[in-house]
């Protein structure tokens, strides 16, 4: 029998949202001020892309290596690691030590992203009543896009006032304050009584669907996350620079493009999470998101070819509502299939897949932008990446064949 409890406090949801969103703050802030940083440090676009590559490579390795470690650590310890490492990365970026120190800051920020998905998924599984879990995944995963929104608006404005080093310092203070609040608060939310995993009900007259194994679910979600991740961060990291250099936007307006994508991404993740909570199958939703993301990449390509700002904003909207929404589907799929005691390691592998894609995407995009093909070559590669996601999602949809057994 499923334990039914009242609505959990929204302050717990706020902790989950902040834990997911704090670690990416540095990467999004650097992206929003990319043109200024490239000029200030005298680096190339490929070298700038290496900052994101360093961050996501460390995150990918961390998620793969620390998954079992996370399963054995209390929630307070993991939250302290998330916020503490994020604050340290921002603090290092605040020091005018040149490109190498900024690379180190990005590495620390990447390690900080080794733990948020695992610990927040476990908190959902162990402290939040079942009726709210899937819906809350959409909200807490929107923390990444909330971070993108805040950084894309805040960093350019602060950089115009106190420089991008000063903007990073303020981010470090915010992360430190949130660390204290989150670690103090989590102990006030008790664990729920242990409950058996219920069998998935089948509606009367419906055809049963063969349930995939837990191992297959983890591998499939990790592979999809890897491919989608390449396109996501290739776009996120270079979107403001594309707007500034190819369409003549100002630094603040260029940052606004990423902010709008983040704002749309917040709403999209909440919306896709609600659809998942109503029972929509993950493969079908992944197929829809992959098709939309492909259309967005084509719109970016068209915006660069024509110089029409309207096409850029259309591309931003498609990017925010589709590719940025994939994470919530991946995490909801895990929550449906994996026991709470293995959530850290399972989430670690899927997140490692995503961050592996995040690692390759900016590096490849930077190299393409620096080639004779420029941004046109980059957006073409992004479109092909999302077409691969379409093929993967279509395979997963077709694999969910009806069971031959009848009752």
Automatic annotation (TrEMBL):
Chain segments annotated as transmembrane: 45-66, 78-95, 170-192, 204-227, 247-272, 284-305, 311-335, 347-370, 376-398
Topology in the lipid bilayer: Multi-pass membrane protein
Residue ranges of every copy of the Major facilitator superfamily (MFS) profile domain listed in the record: 7-405
A Pfam cross-reference name: MFS_1
InterPro entries: MFS (IPR011701), MFS_dom (IPR020846), MFS_trans_sf (IPR036259), Sugar_transport-like (IPR052528)
Coiled coil: none
UniProt main location, coarse: membrane
Keywords attached to this entry: Membrane, Transmembrane, Transmembrane helix
Record's subcellular location: Cell membrane
PANTHER family membership: INTEGRAL MEMBRANE TRANSPORT PROTEIN-RELATED, MAJOR FACILITATOR SUPERFAMILY (MFS) PROFILE DOMAIN-CONTAINING PROTEIN
The protein's name in its UniProt record: MFS family permease
Classification lineage: Bacteria, Bacillati, Actinomycetota, Actinomycetes, Micrococcales
């Amino acid at each position: 029998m499923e334990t039914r409890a009242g609505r959990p406090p929204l302050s717990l949801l706020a902790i989950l949202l902040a834990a997911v969103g704090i670690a990416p703050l540095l990467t999004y802030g650097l992206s929003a001020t990319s043109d200024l940083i490239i000029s200030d440090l005298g680096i190339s676009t490929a070298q700038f892309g290496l900052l994101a590559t360093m961050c996501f490579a460390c995150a990918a390795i961390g998620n793969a290596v620390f998954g079992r470690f996370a399963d054995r650590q209390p929630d307070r310890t993991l939250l302290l690691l998330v916020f503490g490492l994020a604050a340290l990365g921002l603090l290092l970026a605040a020091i005018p030590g040149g490109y190498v120190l900024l690379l180190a800051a990005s590495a620390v920020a990447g390690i900080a992203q080794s733990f948020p998905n695992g610990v927040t998924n476990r908190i959902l599984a162990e402290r939040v009543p079942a009726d709210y879990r899937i819906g809350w995944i959409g909200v807490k995963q929107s923390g990444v896009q909330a971070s993108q929104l805040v950084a894309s608006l805040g960093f350019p404005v602060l950089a115009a006032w106190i420089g991008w080093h000063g903007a990073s310092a303020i981010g470090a203070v915010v992360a430190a304050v949130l660390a204290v609040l989150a670690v103090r608060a989590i102990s006030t939310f008790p664990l729920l009584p242990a409950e058996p995993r219920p069998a998935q009900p089948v509606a009367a007259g419906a055809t049963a669907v063969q349930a995939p194994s837990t191992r297959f679910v983890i591998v499939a979600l990790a592979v999809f996350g890897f491919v989608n991740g390449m396109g996501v961060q290739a776009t996120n990291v270079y979107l403001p620079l594309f707007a500034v250099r190819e369409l003549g936007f100002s630094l603040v307006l260029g940052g606004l493009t990423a902010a709008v994508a983040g704002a749309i991404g917040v709403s999209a993740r909440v919306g896709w999470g609600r659809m998942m909570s109503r029972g929509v199958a993950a493969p079908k939703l992944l197929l829809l998101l992959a098709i939309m993301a492909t259309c967005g990449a084509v719109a970016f390509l068209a915006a660069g070819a024509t110089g029409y700002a309207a096409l850029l904003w259309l591309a931003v909207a498609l990017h925010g509502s589709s590719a940025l929404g994939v994470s919530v589907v991946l995490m909801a799929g895990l929550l449906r299939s994996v026991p709470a005691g293995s959530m850290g390691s399972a989430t670690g592998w899927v997140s490692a897949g995503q961050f592996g894609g995040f690692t390759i995407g900016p590096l490849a995009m930077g190299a393409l932008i620096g080639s004779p093909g420029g941004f046109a070559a980059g957006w073409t590669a992004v479109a092909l990446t999302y077409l691969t996601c379409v093929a993967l999602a279509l395979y997963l949809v077709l694999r969910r064949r009806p069971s031959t057994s009848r009752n």
